[in-house]
């Protein structure tokens, strides 16, 4: 498996497995509160990970496979043009773009 290259803005805590019961995105780094910009970036990444239900480290191939599975599951054409499915698809697309930019750009 190829190593995952993270942008410099990525934090170590976002890339390491959580201890059971530890909250994600606690907003603290080295005992200090994270900056507002870092907290927003972490929040977007954490929300995207929750949408995809995957934990780092992962490969671009695994991310794309999960994306395709979610699109197939929630595509509006598969649900007769359902507005809820349409909104879920928008969220999935936004989460995919966030994760792809955060981990593989």
Features:
single chain, 105 residues, mainly alpha, two-stranded antiparallel sheet, disordered N terminus
Q: What does this 3D model show about the protein?
A:
With 105 residues, the protein is mainly alpha-helical. The protein has a domain of 48 residues. Helix content is 51%, strand content 4%. The protein is built from three helices and two strands. A two-stranded antiparallel sheet has the order 1-2. A hairpin with a 2-residue loop joins strand 1 and strand 2. Helix 1 crosses helix 3 and helix 2 runs antiparallel to helix 3. It is globular and about 45 Å long. The N terminus is likely disordered.
Name the average pLDDT: 75
Rg computed from alpha carbons, rounded to a whole number of angstroms: 15 Å
Order of helices and strands: EEHHH
- Beta-strand percent range: under 5%
User: What class do helices, strands and sheet pairing give?
Assistant: mainly alpha
List unreliable stretches of 5+ residues. 1-23
Work out the helicity level: 40-55%
**In DSSP terms, counting alpha (H) and pi (I) runs of 4 or more, how many helices?**
3
Spatially, the strands of the biggest sheet line up as 1-2
What distance lies between the first and last C-alpha atoms, to the nearest angstrom? 18 Å
Question: Tally of extended strands?
Answer: 2
**Main sheet, how many strands, which sense, barrel?**
2 strands, antiparallel
- How does the overall form come out from the CA principal axes? globular
């Amino acid at each position: 498996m190829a190593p995952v290259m993270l942008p410099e803005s990525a934090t170590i805590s976002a890339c390491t497995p959580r201890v059971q019961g530890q909250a994600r995105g606690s907003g603290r780094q080295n005992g200090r509160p994270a900056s507002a910009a870092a907290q927003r970036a972490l929040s977007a990444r954490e929300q995207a990970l929750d949408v995809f239900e995957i934990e780092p480290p992962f490969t671009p191939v695994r991310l794309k496979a999960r994306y395709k599975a979610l699109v197939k599951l929630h595509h509006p054409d598969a649900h007769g043009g359902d507005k809820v499915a349409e909104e879920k698809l928008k969220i999935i697309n936004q989460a995919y773009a966030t994760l792809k930019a955060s981990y593989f750009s």
